[in-house]
Design goal:
alpha+beta, 6 strands, 132 residues, 23% helix, two-stranded antiparallel ribbon, Alpha-Beta Plaits, elongated, 4-stranded antiparallel sheet
């Protein structure tokens, strides 16, 4: 089983999230700078000396990581939530999806082998979470 965890959160929380995931031995993370708006509907900002210019699209970070079990999915989601939390509107969202298949371009490997086989910290085998 492969599960993709996708999270959107404030830019200033990126280092905290990445450090926490590294401590869990979660690797293979993709990071994007994105723009978006949600319940907060943007903010008013000073722009070039003008007051209260509405800014509807705010900068956010999007990260993606593929994990090998529901146990990892829950742990990764909780760590991201904990580290990205400020308690204010705009903290972000986390989604998870089932991944049907994967293909490593270089070797032609498919499925979990394509995602996890060459990692020295394979989350599918010998995981600290598996001992819980």
């Amino acid at each position: 089983m492969m599960i993709k965890v996708e999270a959107y959160f404030r830019e200033e929380k990126l280092d905290d999230v990445l450090d926490a995931l590294a401590e869990m031995n979660v690797h293979g993370i993709t990071v994007y700078q994105v723009m978006g708006c949600g319940a907060q509907h943007g903010v008013n900002r000073y722009v070039r000396g003008h007051q209260n210019i509405p800014v509807n699209m705010l900068p956010k970070i999007k990260i993606e990581v593929v994990v090998g079990s529901e146990k990892w999915e829950q742990q990764v989601m909780e760590v991201i939530r904990e580290k990205a939390f400020t308690g204010h509107h705009g903290d972000g969202k986390i989604f998870s999806y089932s991944v049907r298949d994967a293909l490593r371009i270089r070797t032609g490997e498919r499925g979990e082998e394509a995602v996890f086989s060459h990692s020295s910290l394979n989350p599918v085998q010998n995981s600290p979470l598996d001992e819980m």
